[in-house]
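Example record

The entry below shows one chain as it appears in the dataset: sequence first, then structure tokens.
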Amino acid sequence: MEKTAVYVGTRNVYEDLQTSCKSLFANSDVDTVYLFVEDDVFPLPMPDEVKIINVSGQEFFKPDGPNSQSRWTYMAMMKVALTKYLKKVNRALMLDYDTIIVDDISELWGTKLGKCYWAGVPNLGIVRPVGNPTYYNAGVALMNYELIRKDKMDDAMIQSLNTYKAKYLDQDVLNDFSGGHIKELPLRFNESGVTGWTREPAIVHYVGINKVSGGINGERRYFYNAYKTLDWPDIKEKREARYGKSLTI
């Protein structure tokens, strides 16, 4: 099974997207990464394994929609429409731009989703309606695109975001429309200030690179800085040593 990862990002986070991609290639044997961005050509160096898809002309979310003027813009909502572009991809790891993969995630790739629409780590402090009490953070989400397409859940989420105001956009509808069919991942795969911390992180989620402050979150800023300063030949060497897989750079 091909290992696929996806990101969505506006121009102001391109540098962070590149840094996250570096950490992903260094700590996984991912085959293909799709970047859904606002340009035809990504302005920073990337290996050929990264595919660029310009969604600036998307027609799923109109400028006058109830969520189109949020601080995240239509790009955040695009996360629920990726099945429309990745029609042959059945599973994908969806990552926020502010995530850094700091340890091997082979265990994550092997997660069995079954009848679950996606897998994630619970988000603390958000109370959901009775019957669907656990709210999951979508900053790291292993997506079952095959089931989402089959049940037309993507269409339902797009329609909802075009009709009703949602505080956390894609994350809200992913929780609401999954009907409890979300598999819980170990905390180490999405450690953050809104999910919690362990002493053996696999993925650190900064919940906004520029919002890193004190405490454990601040201490772990060095993960981001370390990958930001690495060049692609260094990443290629790490990947070959760990997984025996190269990069086309």
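Notes for this example: Residues 98 and 207 are 6 Å apart (CA to CA). The radius of gyration is 17 Å.
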